[in-house]
Amino acid sequence: MTDSGRNDIADLFIIGGGINGCGIARDAAGRGLSVVLAEQSDLAQATSSASTKLFHGGLRYLEYFEFRLVREALEERETLLVAMPHISWPMRFVLPYRADMRFEGDTPTGRLLSGIMPWMKGRRPAWLIRFGLFLYDSLGGRRILPPTRSLDLTQDEAGKPLKPDFKRAFEYSDCWVEDSRLVALNARHAVELGARVMTRTRVSSARREGDVWRIETDGPLGMRSFRARALVNAAGPWVEDVIRSVLSINTREGIRLVRGSHIVTRRLYDHDRAYFFQGTDGRIIFAIPYEQDFTLIGTTDQDHQTVGEPPRCTEQERDYLCAFASRYFARPVTPDDVVWSYSGVRPLYNDGAKSATAATRDYVLSLDENGAPLLSVFGGKITTYRRLAEAALAKLAPAFPRARGAWTAGAPLPGGDFPHDGVMQLNDMLRREYPFLDARWAARLVRAYGTDALKIMGEARSAADLGCDFGATLTEAELRWLMAHEFARRADDVVWRRSKLGLRLSKEQIEAVDAFMADQAGTGAVSPAAE
Ligand SMILES: Cc1cc2nc3c(=O)[nH]c(=O)nc-3n(C[C@H](O)[C@H](O)[C@H](O)COP(=O)(O)OP(=O)(O)OC[C@H]3O[C@@H](n4cnc5c(N)ncnc54)[C@H](O)[C@@H]3O)c2cc1C
């Protein structure tokens, strides 16, 4: 499309292959704009694979009166659920309640309550929680997700794994999403719509030249030069760094880096609902059924000093999460239960909030029009990525008067072209067509690829037709698909981002995956569709 050898000028050049960069690329390409995206590492390598993986309104943001953010996110849940019924699904959250629970004091709700009900001292009456959940149920409209209900934990299965002094709870709806698959599928769709996506390609500098941007990249094909009419800085935690160091622009806008870590344990309980736990420090954590055999617990909120320091779950954070969950579960959660952990940095707009927990989760789109447009993305949630992309393109609209209008609401992501409640039928169909698949294998394929699972299976009549099985049902056929269509280049891309099979594969098995992928890339047997 546009490199130094040719004279083309792209409409949009996007820095960053996280959810925001890939969401904007997909939306823009579908409006008829020519788009180039560069990601310095793998897609979703940074924050977008390290989230709690919820499409949620953010119940706790109601405490901060963040009604705009909560409404937009709540409205969005069902739109997204319908567009990607394979990688997202409804989830029920159980919020155990005890009258002596302490909530964060320094929130607008806390301050209001200490004025009118000073005797509560950080506690929340049950009617107020119920009212919050009523708002949560009604603010964003709800057609698919069931409403809030009260639970008697002495009778309900959700009470079994908890300490016996938790006798009542509320249960409400949100949704789960496979975050890094969401990114890969947005990138893939963008490419199908004509975009060019380059992974492992760092933008090293960009300068305005007249009314276009000149962008220099460094990637597998060496240094290259591109020109574009507008530049989007969707570098997540690096957004401020890119403005200062890559674009050499002075800015007063800043980012607040807030690290969040999660731990994964062997499965702690037997039902399919998640828990929302309120802590003595006013914070909340989730405990969520994860990858069938595990429980995901998180998250923390720690100021993170510099983007140059890769985020890791510290021992202190691990112990904090274990102790927090142990205040609720009858059987204590100990560091010995932890089989994996991950950590990411929230790139929050610096609104001067005192604590990391209080910093706004809303997004800010900043447009610099001192010449060719530069749009920088600060903050944002996985849940609002599609709306953020629409807002970004609305901001850039004057530069592209011939671009088509918004189109992504109601458009399925690749593999998501089946009814939102049709996963079981798709499972059955896959197992009828390919009787050698067992229930677990078929379910994994449907949840990862939706209707594309049929394309991966192709003409196979037996498991052997899919080539070598690297373990945990990961076959050559699947690896070839991931390399050809989803930008996977190394074992890590596959076992920690396109899937979570890293939880099941041994070190030797992962090395065998890596060797196979290196060999395929080397022989050119799999053509990287995206580059
Ligand atoms: C612990 C935690 C839990 C969360 N939970 C949720 C949740 O449950 N639900 C929800 O909706 N949201 C959640 N979020 C928020 C959400 O994950 C983030 O807002 C979102 O992933 C940010 O995406 P992004 O594209 O802006 O950034 P990123 O995903 O970080 O992407 C930015 C990309 O830019 C690339 N890049 C940087 N510099 C360059 C350069 N010079 N050249 C090329 N590429 C470059 C980086 O490599 C990176 O991949 C959570 C966040 C955290 C940290």
Describe this entry's structure for a reader.
Strands 3, 4, 5, 6, 11, 12, 13, 14, 15 and 16 form a 10-stranded mixed beta sheet that branches. It is globular and about 70 Å long. The longest helix is centred in the N-terminal third of the chain and has 17 residues. α1 links the parallel β1 and β2. The chain is α+β, with helices and mostly antiparallel strands and 531 residues long. α1 runs parallel beside α5, α1 crosses α8 and α9 crosses α10.
Number of strands: 18
Beta-strand share of residues = 15-25%
The hetero compounds bound to this protein are: flavin-adenine dinucleotide
Summed up, the helix count is 14
Question: What value does the average pLDDT take?
Answer: 93
What is the helix fraction of residues, given as a range? Answer: 25-40%
Helix vs. strand class: alpha+beta
Rg over CA atoms, rounded to whole Å, is: 23 Å
Termini Cα gap: 10 Å
Weakly predicted, low-confidence segments: 1-6
Relevant terms:
disordered N terminus; eight-stranded mixed sheet; 14 helices; alpha+beta; 531 residues; ten-stranded mixed sheet; binds flavin-adenine dinucleotide
